[in-house]
Amino acid sequence: MPPGISTLAADAPELSAANTGFMLICSALVMLMTPALAFFYGGMVRVKSTLNMLMMSFISLGIVTILWVLYGFSLAFGTDSGSLIGWSADYVGLSGIGVTELWDGYTIPVYVFAVFQLMFAVLTPALISGALADRVKFTAWALFIALWVTVVYFPVAHWVWGSGGWLFEMGVIDFAGGTAVHINAGAAALGVILVIGKRVGFKKDPMRPHSLPLVMLGAGLLWFGWFGFNAGSWLGNDDGVGAVMFVNTQVATAAAMLAWLIYEKIRHGAFTTLGAASGAVAGLVAITPAGGSVSPLGAIAVGAVAGVVCAMAVGLKYKFGYDDSLDVVGVHLVGGIIGSLLVGFFATGGVQSDAAGLFYGGGLEQLGKQAIGVFAVLAYSLVASALLALVLHKTIGMRVDEDDEISGVDQVEHAETAYDFSGAGGGAASRKAVPAPVDTVAAAESKKVDA
Question: For residue 206, what pLDDT band results from cuts at 50, 70 and 90?
Answer without folding.
Answer: confident
